[in-house]
Design a protein that fits this description.
Number of helices: 7
Cofactor: [4Fe-4S] cluster; FAD; [2Fe-2S] cluster
Radius of gyration: 19 Å
Pfam families: Fer2_BFD
Keywords: 2Fe-2S, FAD, Flavoprotein, Heme, Iron, Iron-sulfur, Metal-binding, Nitrate assimilation, Oxidoreductase
Protein name: BFD-like [2Fe-2S]-binding domain-containing protein
Number of strands: 2
CATH class of the largest domain: Mainly Alpha
Helix content: 40-55%
Number of domains: 2
Mean pLDDT: 84
Strand content: under 5%
CATH topology of the largest domain: Arc Repressor Mutant, subunit A
Strand order of the largest sheet: 1-2
Low-confidence stretches: none
GO molecular function: 2 iron, 2 sulfur cluster binding; metal ion binding; oxidoreductase activity
Length: about 160
Amino acid sequence: MLVGNNGVYDTLLQYYSNGIELPDEPASLILPQSSGAAPTLGPGALPETASICSCHNVTKGDICATIDAGVVDLGGVKAATKASTGCGGCTALLKSVVDHELEARGVEVDKSICEHFAHTRQGLYDIVRVEGIKTFTDLIENTATPTLTAWAAISASPL
């Protein structure tokens, strides 16, 4: 059981599920990373048989085959494989695998936090700090894509 920051759960699960050999210092998997420490297991280190979505039994190999068949975005991979359309617990892992595999094939990957904000997480954070944005409404009005801005205007109007 993980208590507190469970951000390493996906990594630990992949080590266990795929019988991947632990690093020389296994404590480094759960302790805060120190400067110069070896990175944790990345999507490139996962075997083709690694289960990415247990709800729909989607493996890394399934995702790679989908990309090789010409699907070049996360939404397309979700539609083709149904990965991340069940409980959603694999969403972050799926995104990291898709991004890694697309980059490995020379495809430019959109680093936006989501389809509603055309910024990275760090970029959006910087905008909020520099612009002094204090509310989510202000964030939407100042930085969101037109689709989200239109949705926000509709949802804010009285019925």
